[in-house]
Amino acid sequence: MGMKIRDRLERERRVVNDWLGDCLPEPEELSRPVFDAMSYSLLAGGKRLRPILMVSTSRLFRDGVSPLLRNFACGMECIHTYSLIHDDLPSMDDDDLRRGRPTSHKVFGEAIAILAGDALLTLAFELMSRPALGDEKRQLKALNSIAVYAGSLGMVGGQIADIREAQDDDMAESIRFIHKRKTGALIRASVEAGAVLAGASDEECETLSEFGGKIGFAFQIVDDLLEHLGDSDVLGKNTDSDARNQRLTYPGVMGVERAKDESRDLICDAISLLEPYGKDGEMLKGIARYFVERVS
Amino acid sequence: MGMKIRDRLERERRVVNDWLGDCLPEPEELSRPVFDAMSYSLLAGGKRLRPILMVSTSRLFRDGVSPLLRNFACGMECIHTYSLIHDDLPSMDDDDLRRGRPTSHKVFGEAIAILAGDALLTLAFELMSRPALGDEKRQLKALNSIAVYAGSLGMVGGQIADIREAQDDDMAESIRFIHKRKTGALIRASVEAGAVLAGASDEECETLSEFGGKIGFAFQIVDDLLEHLGDSDVLGKNTDSDARNQRLTYPGVMGVERAKDESRDLICDAISLLEPYGKDGEMLKGIARYFVERVS
Asked: Would you state the pLDDT for residue B27?
């Protein structure tokens, strides 16, 4: 299974990369730096897990990839990429390296990095609101839930809680709050939007959203574990930056063994939610297992 | 006319302020700083011209303000506010004062200011994509054009061109490029979206979009003139920051008299586009005149 899912992910990743190459607007000369910076970060590699999850979820209900689904998949990667650019800024994590390359503000300067992030976030919603031959109600519903998951009650809220200086909080509660939002929210949004766009029933959308929430939470726990166990070559970023910034991490708060156990439990629970889909759910199950296999 | 339009604008401004007070999400305790920072900037005052323009345009075609229109009006002000927060950052204009109060990063620090901007931009699209009893195709169309005007081909592109160091450009071309995008784009978007949402024909939407583009361009020329002639008490911000940052300004490039003439011509052209609406167009005409009266 291990190799097989990795091969499939690699194949899907290449397809998504092609889409992403096509989704950026044609540059204007007088504002060229923003286009260069958008392209630099968006096309920098990355696992493309969010678009792949969205497409794989959609395939539970219908074959093929509509232009609408492709726009949403690209939009999700634009949101993810903007969040990385802004997270890396000197006033946030102050990281010099991302995906093995200098971070955006190192290459383009802080002002252009901030604006490139803003432009990618805006582009995401531009892509997702393009006219499509489909059900506009569902298009708006998917766009709206992505906006909720990406905003102050989702990803941005998680980032705020992560950088907030608060000694008096319950650390276990805090780390759960952070991880469910900071990483979990966009992964959940990807799965949920895939289901909504593919015409799933409300009940199916809810179950799959729950699946996405669980694997998203597990993904961040595993990310912490990888940083904790440490291997900057594998991750392509500095593994000491969380410690340097005295951020909470799941193994830091809960201990390594408990972090491993919880991430495995989350994945088991998530996979059990796919029961109704039988063989059609194999790809999503494979991705879910891959999320924890990275560290087991 | 002068007083009358000011009174009407003041009345509309209060209505918009009430809407804005209601559009922010309920804060979560562990991420409270982002909600405080969003509210600090969004409810800081301001002329609310973009929401008022949107609503006034809609009234050319239908009475009243639907919940959908209200959400779009608030969304537009969220986008405007995010752009001000990010523009004021140390790596951009490095301004300490905005609307007579300390800027966001002065109060909350740079990281939270950046994230509050991100959250307001995201909230804008969340508001505009909420389910409404209306024409979803038009809702998506309005949302999409706002995203285009706010992004790399619009407002963000204008900001990039403004901060870019390029000595070899045609300065007259550059300043037009910048002003049409940096300020003009959102004002144009407000008018256009108001028309789209109110059910205007394609032709009407296009004419009104042109009206919005002209008054938006004029607005920024007048803003430059006010800064050039200088009065920090009236503007509630430091008037020397453009000069300090060696930004291009319209009177700086074109001269004061030509800047005044061009802004007046733009407003005349814009007003002539409202001819077909007769008396119904009085409010928009009044706003257009107010845009240049500020400096005449």
From this structure: 97
In whole angstroms, give the CA distance from residue B158 to residue A30.
9
The average pLDDT across A218-244 equals 69
Compute CA distances B72 → A75, B128, B146, B162, B248, whole Å: 21, 5, 10, 27, 32
pLDDT on residue B124: 98
In chain B, the domains with their CATH numbers are 2-293 (1.10.600.10)
Query: Which A-chain residues 180-199 have CB contacts (< 8 A) with chain B?
Result: 181
Tell me, yes or no, if A171 comes closer than 8 A to chain B by beta carbon. no
- Residue A22 has φ and ψ, to the nearest 5°, of -90, -10
pLDDT at residue B264 in the model? 95
Q: Which two tokens stand for residue B285?
A: 């005409």
User: Chain A: residue nearest B160 by CA?
Assistant: A31
Using the Cβ of A152 and the Cβ atoms of chain B, whether some distance falls under 8 Å is answered with yes
**Closest to A84 in 3D by CA, of A74, A97, A69, A75:** A97
The answer to whether A139 and A133 have CB atoms below 8 angstroms apart is no
Q: Which residues on adjacent β-strands are paired with residue A102?
A: A97
Q: How many Cβ atoms are within 10 Å of A137's Cβ, its own excluded?
A: 12
Q: Residue B186 is encoded by which pair of tokens?
A: 């959102």
Q: Residue A181's closest chain B neighbor by CA?
A: B31
Tell whether the model's pLDDT for residue B76 goes beyond 60. Answer: yes
pLDDT of residue B1: 46
Pick from A114, A144, A168 the residue to mutate for testing the B interface (most B CBs within 10 Å).
A114
Q: Strands, E, within chain B: which ranges? A: 97-98, 101-102
Phi, psi of A140 (to 5 degrees): -65, -40
Report which of A244, A261, A243 is spatially closest to residue A252, judged by C-alpha positions: A243
The amino acid occupying position A285 is K
Torsion angle (degrees, nearest 10) of CA A94, A156, A192, B126? -130
CA distance A144 to A146: 5
Q: Does this complex have an ipTM over 0.90? A: yes
Is the pTM for the entire model greater than 0.90? yes
Query: A220: pLDDT confidence band, cut at 50, 70 and 90?
Result: very high
User: What is the sign of the dihedral through the CA atoms of A94, A98, A100 and A101?
Assistant: negative
Chain B residues whose CB is inside 8 A of the A164 CB are 30-31, 33
Structure tokens at A249: 């991490």
User: Comparing C-alpha atoms, which of A222, A221, A196 is closest to residue A207?
Assistant: A196
Report the percent of chain A where pLDDT is more than 70: 92
Contact B287, B53 (CB under 8 A): yes
End-to-end CA distance of chain A: 14
Q: Which of B65, B91, B95, B53 is nearest to B227 (CA)?
A: B95
Cβ contacts of B147 within 8 Å, gap of 6 or more: A122, A123, A125, A126, A129, B125
Q: Do A151 and B122 touch (CB under 8 A)?
A: yes
Question: What's the rounded Cα separation, in Å, for the pair A63 and A151?
Answer: 31
Tens-digit pLDDT profile for residues A4-48: 899 999 999 999 999 999 999 999 999 999 999 999 999 998 999
Closest to B191 measured CA to CA, from B15, B8, B51, B47 = B51
